[in-house]
Structure prediction request, 132 residues.
Amino acid sequence: MSTEREVTDDDLMEDAKDPAQAARLHKALRTLRDNPDVPPQLKQMAREVLTGRLTMTDVAKGGPYLDALGDGMTKIRRAAENLTPEEEARNREAAERYRREQEEAEAREQAERDAPAQPPTTPRPRGRRGRI
Prediction:
């Protein structure tokens, strides 16, 4: 496990239009970095952005990481073109379910961020019932 400091949502605001988008970008980058099915070049890109050595703006300017993203999108498009109507319907349903789950999770996370800090609770002293 790396001991490098990971950027925060605030650090990603340069590449995002609002805090919610920065949080989604941060989560997506961690997913790319940690998912064993992601190609090594995209995992490396995610690590570079998460450690602050690279910004998404840098990635978008071109180079090998942008090429890797494009290759990934091409593979997704080709796979989508070969789906049967039944597979398309199942994928749409799954995508909608996933979208709803993500929105609910983001709403919970936002509520946690927006909640006022709760003061630490201290245990109440136990009284001695029946004793004077």
In short: Residues 35 and 67 are 19 Å apart (CA to CA). The chain has a mean pLDDT of 86. Helices lie at 19-34, 40-50, 56-60, 64-81, 85-114.
